[in-house]
Amino acid sequence: MQPFAGLVKTTIPNYLSGLPIPDSIGGWFKLGFKDWLALVPPTAALAGCGYVAYRAFCPHGRPQPCGKVNPSIQKNNPKVVDSVDVEDIADKAAFCRCWRSKKWPYCDGSHGTHNKETGDNVGPVVVKREK
User: Fold this and answer.
1) Which residues pair with 70 in a beta bridge?
2) What is the pLDDT of residues 61-77, one digit of tens each?
3) Buried b (16+ CB within 10 A) or exposed e, 94-103
4) How many Å apart are CA 128 and CA 91, to the nearest integer?
5) Of 104, 113, 117, 121, whose CB has the highest number of CB atoms within 10 Å?
6) Residue 107: how many CB atoms within 10 A of its CB?
7) How far is Cα 35 from Cα 84, in angstroms, rounded to an integer?
8) CA atoms of 118 and 36, how far apart (whole Å)
9) DSSP readout, 86-103?
10) Predicted TM-score (pTM) of this structure
11) Whether 79 is catalytic
């Protein structure tokens, strides 16, 4: 523990105090090549610490899409579109929204398994005929 304490209390402060950091904005323009070269290691270390902190608190960066919704229905079509005539619906029909139904576009209850596996809460669209 003693070497670490010496590093933090003595070595790093002495190193940082010896860096050519100007007192004004105009001083940055007066730095020579060797001065700029001396600033590269602490700048790289600071950037590395910032990146590690960013990855620690934002592990995925931007949210990524979690994959395709449709696992198997009409995969050879560029867009799946189904039309159902209202006259063909009985008093009530349930249409699938989870894309797991074997009776597509009608719901067969597959969303229950899908919801348990993924933690989702999707259910069917229920269409009722008004009397």
Assistant:
1) none
2) 555 556 677 888 888 98
3) bbbbbbbbee
4) 6
5) 104
6) 20
7) 74
8) 53
9) GGG--SEEEE-SSS--TT
10) 0.45
11) yes
